[in-house]
């Protein structure tokens, strides 16, 4: 970045939406931090988006309402937007750009870091391994979250995705190793923000949580900064203080809408559905900031939440997210209507790194075999259910009836759990064996004999083999 003496530029050419255009600038670079000095002695903050000859385009984080072209000055600070990083963020509740909302003092940190960050160097990346347990059976058993992974939640409007994200943030742990959670709420309502604060109060009091809340009526530009501030804090906690850090970001669709609004204000050529053509690289600049570094104990794990407009998984936000991330948790309106919480659809959900975090030496020896068998049994049970709808129950065999019973028991005893209910992995796998044992042993073809001998207890109403 070019260094220069601070100069106040007063030739404001245009104020439009979240953007301000100032003329006569010299020695100013992209992403440079700026202060907007108002005629009432107020100060707002901005970031340089573009530079063209002597013109600079600045996005104002607090919005441009009340800013006039006269009586306003811009001061460029000679460096990108930075925040103080350190353990002082833990236990605090802040706005999307790091301003305290809990009545406490400003957070200065132990050092300063550029909020734009950078993806981890591929040559320094270590393979994600070991599990982060969430206390939620459908995740821990079937789509295990791995330290250093990015595993998004795909949802639609009206489903309890925020409740699920908050529950994950409240219950997740790294098996006794140093752990912290950074929660970034983007474009949420004040009611939801209050609910998140209440649900995470205990974790915040224990000094394991940094909470950033950008509400729907906050400036749209702040929404673009929020995940970057959260990840900057998380990276320092992970790689400087050697913690395993879980970053929960809800809702990435609101973030992408903010990117689209700023792009439109800049007059850029729109791409698919009005989003800018660089949306993929923009999302990648956020998602790729997680992982593990070879030789260091800490890790950054991301759980972004996104709502699919109209349930369309081909919408640009879930579509591009799916290309970058390592699996997905898909929420089902049908399960939600049936009263199942969390309404995670097991056959549509996937953790591509599950084998690196589960199984012998990591969770339990029977974990991976049992998870694969559960998914196979559930797929068979769905086929039987469809057959029942076509031909009626009279056409079913005795074994088919046991598959229907398995599906009902799977939803009731395994999938369904309370919003505040946290299950140990042993409890989760015990429940999985209980519902699996509804079926005769001959149907459990993906489980080894040793594992079956150790854990399978046939239902007393099982038909003879």
Plain-language structure description:
The chain is of the alpha/beta class. The chain has 3 domains: 8-80, Elongation Factor Tu (Ef-tu), domain 3 (Beta Barrel); 84-357, Rossmann fold (3-Layer(aba) Sandwich), CATH 3.40.50; 367-455, no CATH class. It has 14 helices and 21 strands. It has helices spanning 137-142, 161-171, 190-199, 201-205, 220-239, 252-265, 279-287, 316-324, 333-337, 354-357, 367-391, 398-415, 425-436, 449-455, and strands spanning 8-9, 12-16, 19-22, 32-37, 43-52, 55-60, 73-80, 82-85, 92-95, 111-114, 125-126, 131-132, 145-146, 153-155, 179-188, 209-215, 244-250, 291-293, 299-307, 327-330, 350-351. Strands 9, 11, 14, 15, 16, 17, 18, 19, 20 and 21 form a 10-stranded mixed beta sheet that branches. It has a 7-stranded antiparallel beta sheet with strand order 1-7-4-5-6-3-2, with no helix packed on it. A hairpin with a 2-residue loop joins β2 and β3 (19-22). α11 (367-391) crosses α12 (398-415), α11 (367-391) crosses α13 and α12 (398-415) packs antiparallel against α13. It is elongated.
